[in-house]
Structures are given as C-alpha cells and as structure tokens.
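Q: Here's a chain of 73 amino acids. Please give me its 3D structure as tokens.
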Amino acid sequence: MSKAILQFNDLQELCQPGKRPRLATVIRWADGCGIRFLYDGSGGIWTTMHALNGALGLARAKPHLDLYDPSDF
C-alpha cells in the first residue's frame, strides 16, 4: 500500500484479507496490534501508514503532542 491514509476498507482488508469484517472486529485487531486510529464520519476508522509502520516496528511512531501547555493557564 502506497497511500499515506488508510481508510476503513483498507483496514478491513488488512485485518481479514478477502473478507469484510465488522467495525468491532477491525477495532479489536487494530488495538491488539497497537495501531493508532481515529473514527471517521461514516461509521468506520482510519489511520496513516506512519501509524501502521510504527505499530509494526518499522518506524518510530510520532508521540502525542500536547495541544497546549497547562502552565499557560
């Protein structure tokens, strides 16, 4: 896969090739693999190749960045 963004149907294929597993199955699989993902507006999930590679140990996953510094308040 050469796409930077992996949509729900891509993740379904990675989870169970040749089948179309339900959302709950794909989420359990992604969680078990350590793949970071977000929910999309269509009732699925999506991720990036960088997140997938990080979960597989092929690249370092980017750390979660704080959106604000609590000391600013």
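Q: Can you summarize the key feature?
A: Residues 10 and 61 are 20 Å apart (CA to CA).
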